[in-house]
Write a structure and sequence with these properties.
single chain; Rossmann fold; 10 helices; Neuraminidase; alpha+beta; five-stranded mixed β-sheet
């Protein structure tokens, strides 16, 4: 049952290199994931691609940075044995040689000069007190000489994840920084590569919780950046001589894609209007300082901007697999060519219909969601516990549909699809009211489809995995809310965490948890109270748990106490520990084993 989907969708993480007319992507097959390249000047079929590296990327991360066309070098972020000890590597497309060029504990800041001669990168390190700081280095790639530019250990603003953007002359770089690594107040710094002088560019009133530089390189006096300062992500322009900021776009809903052309002449933005099944594409002309010119087109369905140098859109929905289409957008929007990263008969890959819905939650808020409906007899329902509210194809959804399972994907509070105000409702309240939003999703399904609570379950990974366990163990009367308990029929937890204290102490992103729940010091009781391991007695339904033994983001130790209690109890559970895997899935063979185990679990709990 699972093999047909894995065989149909072996391609992932596609990068479009327009200048070279190539696609670079991973292909999963059998026991490995290999890096492939497709010459799209000669073929638009992924089947005609060729392997460009013998490295097995099921055992390491793969994030492309930039392609050096002169030297045929692909720069990527990768790690060893899925342990997230991220470093920069080069892959030589002529020789297939993969070479590690940095030696850091965790590299999240990186960028190359336009001539590919200078690399600036960060080395994030952990102190004995458990705090994370970053040293930023400049390296000449021709001589391998390095220079320490700065160390943020004594700064209020610190580095986390950011591109490094160079100016035209290669004298300065521009990097996003985060006040105290709290994910609340971001700025942009300019670092002079010779003097190492550091300058914060944005005024206090222009800072925001989500902010990054849009330019691929800075030419002239204009720096463009994206910010949620006014509640939704919008494009801004910063004049580098005066440090004056102006807002270019005035969107009043969340954008789902933004890309600037390499020459800084135009900006493309996609905004989904889910309730209308529309995507609005905007082209912003950046060539004039006097008057902003903007064009727009309306596309049917859900589209987003694909990673490329020009304008490629990705189109997908809950009932249609992804397609990449290149467009020209001059006086009108014209499709040029399309590429389908899948193979096989769509009749065997689509088993559902879908629709956009809204339901009312406990405090009167409306929660937006997408609802997948199987074409067969309804046997039960699964709710996406977090990272929901998106309209895209997932073969896992189709797998559920084949089993007769409804899937509801809600954008509960804390989700990113409804702007900063909705997103911030989770801040300081992780494991609180967003979980009750899930309970009301279950009540919606009960009423809409005449289901019993025993037929409704939660499913999620990482933060979503925590939400599954929290939803199944939250007791009655939480925060004085009568509806804080729901008797779910089952749960599926991927790479989740049950012990927030352990997560804080062992994760390589403790700042994420501090952002979600507040500082650990002084709030230890709150961390314990919202940990599923300390509310285990409320678990009254079967649970499926899968976790990688090498997971550095969510350490398996954060699940140990919960699993020990499961083993010592008479509760029904299924456990799948993935040896040697990190925070994601493994190769195709490993996924077959894992999903077949999950299918057996679902058939048992839903009497299929």
């Amino acid at each position: 049952m699972i093999e047909k989907y894995l065989n149909a969708f072996p391609y992932m993480q596609t990068t479009i290199v327009d200048k070279e007319n190539i696609l670079i992507f991973l292909k999963s097959q059998g026991e490995s994931k290999a890096l492939h390249m497709l010459d799209i000047e000669n073929s638009l079929s992924y089947d005609d691609s060729k392997v460009i590296s013998s490295e097995d990327f099921s055992k390491r991360a793969y994030w492309p940075i930039v392609f050096d066309s002169k030297k045929k070098l692909l720069y990527i972020i990768s790690d060893d044995e899925n342990q997230e000890n991220y470093n920069i590597y080069t892959l030589n497309l002529s020789t297939s040689k993969l070479e590690q060029i940095t030696k850091t504990t965790y590299c999240g800041v990186y960028g190359l000069s336009p001539d590919k001669k200078i690399l600036v990168y960060g080395d994030r390190y952990k102190t004995g007190e458990g705090k994370f700081y970053t040293r930023v280095y400049k390296r000449c790639l021709e001589t391998n000489r390095e220079k320490l530019l700065c160390d943020d250990a004594d700064w209020k603003y610190r580095f986390s994840w950011s591109d490094v953007v160079f100016d035209q002359g290669g004298k300065n770089v521009f990097i996003s920084v985060d006040l105290n690594n709290e994910r609340k107040t971001n700025n942009i710094v300019r670092i002079n590569l010779e003097s190492t002088a550091v300058e914060h560019l944005l005024q206090e009133e222009d800072q925001s919780s989500e902010l990054w530089v849009l330019n691929k390189r800075i030419e002239g006096n204009n720096l463009y950046y994206c910010s949620n300062k006014n509640g939704y992500l919008n494009a801004y322009k910063l004049k580098l001589d005066s440090l004056k900021t102006s807002q270019l776009t005035h969107l009043s809903r969340s954008l789902n894609g933004i890309n600037i052309l390499e020459d800084n002449t135009a900006l493309y933005i996609t905004v989904n209007y889910d309730e209308k099944n529309e995507t609005h594409l905007f082209k912003v002309d950046l060539t004039s300082d006097s008057k902003l010119a903007m064009k727009s087109e309306i596309l049917r369905g859900s589209h987003s901007i694909a990673p490329s140098d020009s304008l490629w859109l990705s189109h997908s929905s809950m009932s249609s697999p992804n397609t990449f289409t290149e467009y020209k957008f001059n006086e009108a929007l014209c499709p040029e060519r399309s590429i389908k990263p899948y193979q096989g008969n769509l009749n065997k890959l689509v088993h559902n219909s879908y629709r956009y819905v809204e339901y009312e939650t406990f405090d009167g808020h409306k929660v937006s969601a997408f609802l997948s409906l199987p074409k067969t007899k309804i046997r039960g329902a699964i709710i996406t516990a977090f990272y929901g509210g998106y309209n895209y194809y997932s073969w896992q959804t189709q797998l559920f549909s084949e089993l007769g399972i409804i899937e509801l994907s809600p954008a509960v509070r804390g989700s990113e699809t409804r702007g900063k105000e909705w997103r911030d409702l989770i801040k300081g309240d992780l494991g609180g009211n967003e979980i009750i939003d899930l309970h009301f999703a279950a009540k919606f399904l009960e009423k809409e489809f005449k289901l019993e609570s025993s037929q409704i379950g939660l499913e999620g990974g990482s933060h979503g995995g925590y939400s599954v366990l929290r939803g199944m163990t939250m007791g009655r009367g939480f925060n004085g809310i009568n509806e804080s308990y729901y008797p779910y029929g089952f749960g599926i937890c991927w790479a989740g965490f049950a012990d927030l204290e352990d997560f804080y102490k062992t994760s390589n992103i403790p700042d994420w948890l501090v952002d979600m729940l507040g500082p650990y010091e002084g709030n230890e009781e709150k961390y314990r109270e919202r940990s599923p391991v300390h509310n285990f007695e409320n678990l009254n339904a079967p649970v499926f748990i899968s976790h990688g033994t090498n997971d550095a983001r969510v350490s398996p130790t954060s699940m140990d106490g919960f699993i020990e209690k499961l083993r010592a109890s008479d509760k029904d559970y299924s456990l799948h520990m993935m040896a040697g895997l990190g925070h994601g899935g493994g190769n195709q063979n490993e996924e077959i084993v894992m999903y077949n185990k999950m299918i057996s679990f679902l058939k048992k709990v839903l009497n299929i």
